[in-house]
């Protein structure tokens, strides 16, 4: 069967990708299958740039088609921060959440959005990048146990609960990652015979 490597070792993201790919005839591998992958410096200034760097490095190292995402949370009242620095905003999920809540203390505009860029690389070249977003607001305290990262404080538009209170399936119906991924999948289905090779 054809396979594609996800340029991530993040188990939460992989779980989301597995769910999104469950009806596809493609086997998903990841950087967990390539433990000696040297890593990529995420020094781009946009989500697309970082996603492209990760997809390209993964494709070159594994010598198979690859995709990678870069994602983060943009908060309007903070001028779009933490944005591409979402992972590096503080050391742990708990610290990231409490730092963000304290930056937003007494701030009434809580609007925010999650953004995800996905890049696909084949034969040592990035062939496309796609972006998805979900708009919402930052809550006043963490709620829920599911998901990862900033999920406990992100309330998607049209909901009264946080991402972390939704099931994985529900989050996957609306998330920034699912939306970017749907565009990527449509492109692969329409355009690509590249994945039909056996490796
Ligand atoms: P990267 O895409 O792995 O560089 O990191 C993105 C960072 O943004 C993660 O470490 C999380 O902190 C945050 N993030 C991205 N997507 C999500 C999500 O779906 N839920 C919660 N946090 C997210």
Bound molecule types: inosinic acid
Q: Calculate the mean pLDDT score and round it.
A: 93
How much of the polypeptide forms β-strand, as a percent range? 15-25%
Listing every helix as H and every strand as E from the N terminus to the C terminus, the arrangement reads EHEHEHEEEHH
Distance between the termini: 8 Å
Which runs of at least 5 residues are low in confidence (pLDDT < 50)? none
How many helical elements? 5
Largest sheet, order of strands side by side? 2-1-3-4-5-6
Please report the total strand number as a whole number. 6
The Rg value, from CA coordinates, equals 17 Å
Which structural class fits the helix and strand makeup?
Answer: alpha/beta
Largest sheet: number of strands, sense, barrel closure: 6 strands, mixed
Shape estimate: globular
Summarize the amount of helix as a percent range: 25-40%
Write a brief structural summary.
This protein is of the alpha/beta class.
Describe the structure.
The protein has 199 residues and is of the alpha/beta class. The protein has 5 helices and 6 strands, in the order βαβαβαβββαα. Strands 2-1-3-4-5-6 form a 6-stranded mixed beta sheet. A hairpin with a 2-residue loop joins strand 4 (111-122) and strand 5 (125-138). The termini are close together. The structure holds inosinic acid. Residues 10, 42, 69-73, 86-87, 96, 114, 147-151, 163, 175, 177 line the site of inosinic acid.
